[in-house]
Automatic annotation (TrEMBL):
Residues 1-24 form the signal peptide. It is found in: Secreted. The gene is Vwce_1. This is VWCE protein. Gene3D superfamilies: Laminin. It comes from Columbina picui. One of its GO terms (biological process) is cellular response to virus. CDD domains: EGF_CA.
């Protein structure tokens, strides 16, 4: 009985020691296995550790198939391309970038703008430049030149240009300041005649002083 009592006292002393001074050393040891178990589940590439445990590094997420951090994230989206690394897309045209250009849609070669309000956003076709109108073609909606000469009020000749038109006047006439009407050019100001010059609408006529007659070139006097 004395031996058994001694053993009980010894065990009680050991328990007391463990619950007092040794408690600070024993407690962390018991908490580590669950922490290690969490970290052991996050194995493979692109795993980052922090004070809260472990998880996928920025730019990566868990792949549903393997449960590892092997699925890259592309913040801007890749459209019809494939995300091959964080913010790196492989596009159908063979190029790589942070995103892929969208294929031409109903807005044609001029693309779309986003019209946004409090209710959300919608794609709106861009407005064609001045002098162009949107026309539906087999290749989509495109901006084509307007032939303003069908409705332009030119006094002389109308010449259609890309995005506009110009008015031109015939020989002996010049374009007025309004860029539409024509006015006579006074050719006599350039003194084309040897003696006398008489201007007329769109032309001029030379004459000579008494005692002279007009040469066959219609300008010189003999």
């Amino acid at each position: 009985p004395s031996v058994m009592l001694a053993e009980l006292l010894f065990q009680a002393a050991c328990v007391s020691l463990l619950l007092s001074g040794g408690q600070g050393r024993v407690y962390p040891g018991r908490k580590k296995p669950p922490s290690f178990a969490v970290e052991r589940r996050r194995v493979g590439p692109h795993v980052c550790f922090s004070g809260f445990g472990s998880g996928c590094c920025p730019g990566w997420m868990l792949s549903p198939g393997s449960g590892q951090c092997t699925l890259p994230l592309c913040s801007f989206g890749c459209g019809s391309g494939l995300c091959i690394a964080p913010n790196l897309c492989s596009c159908p045209d063979g190029e790589q970038g942070i995103t892929c250009p969208e294929p031409p849609g109903a807005c044609g070669e001029y693309g779309c703008d986003l019209s946004c309000n409090q209710g959300g956003c919608q794609e709106v076709a861009r407005v064609c430049p001045l002098g162009f109108s949107m026309v539906e073609t087999p290749n989509g909606i495109r901006c084509t030149d307007i032939n303003e000469c069908l409705s332009a009020a030119c006094e002389g000749l109308c010449v259609n240009t890309e995005g506009g038109f110009v008015c031109e006047c015939g020989p002996g006439m010049q374009l007025s300041a309004d860029r539409h009407s024509c006015q006579d050019t006074d050719e006599c100001q350039a003194t084309p005649c040897q003696h006398r010059c008489k201007n007329s609408i769109g032309s001029y006529r030379c004459s000579c002083r008494p005692g002279y007659h007009l040469h066959g070139n219609r300008h010189s006097c003999v």
